[in-house]
Design brief:
The chain is mostly helical. Helices cover about 80% and strands about 0% of the residues. The longest helix is centred in the N-terminal third of the chain and has 55 residues.
Length: about 180
Amino acid sequence: MTATLIWILVALVAIGVYLSWTAGRLDRLHVRMDATRAALDAQLLRRASVAQELATSGVLDPAASIVLYEAAHAARQAEEEQREVAESELSQALRAVFEDPAQVEAVREAPGGEEAARELAEAVRRVPMARRFHNDAVGAARRLREHRKVRWFRLAGHAPFPLAVEMDDEPPAALIERVS
């Protein structure tokens, strides 16, 4: 009888340790996801700020400046629910403004334009990487949260189900090629 109780106790302790380890792993994934989201937000803000700065610098023609400024301003001011749409529109505006390599050359030839073009190219390159890192972290957390043991024992607590960021973040090819 004592041996049976000891084996039951050992099994319960092993299950408890395993569940605790799984909960800790899930918590680390949520922390990683929060960190990657913060990094993505920082890169999106940087891209919008650089685009807005370039739009107000007088280097672009007036129509391109207005399009770029309005898209960047909308991306910076967007509520969380509309953020992906606003950021996608900024990506589209950047591609529209910098679809012509001559436009990129005109920016580079203007005083201070070389630095502005380089800074914008770096900003638009980093956004897809930051989004990919975030979506990878979200995918890992989702896969773990879909396990039965996590659902049955409610190891995720009250944390909201992680959502990936889906947006258009393709950089303007002419800008990336000319500035690289």
